[in-house]
């Protein structure tokens, strides 16, 4: 994990202000189609942040207890995220 994050992602000039929001060992990938390009802001994401943080979409407001729910929301929209990337 450290090798991937620090030696590849952080050093890549396309990435800015990288932070690890959550880290855990997994048995299988949660996102089989998503290639980590970007996530379009979906109304469900905005509603999630308003409900949990009383603000608009801002990943920096995520806290340890809201990160798993947000990751699950991203997973639920994986197909939409992948389609948006393919069409872009």
TrEMBL record:
**Which GO terms of the molecular function aspect are on file?**
blue light photoreceptor activity; FAD binding
UniProt cross-references to PROSITE patterns, sorted A to Z: BLUF (PS50925)
Classify the source by domain of life.
Answer: Bacteria
Instruction: Return the Pfam families for the record.
Output: BLUF (PF04940)
Q: Which positions fall inside the BLUF domain? A: 1-37
This protein's name? BLUF domain-containing protein
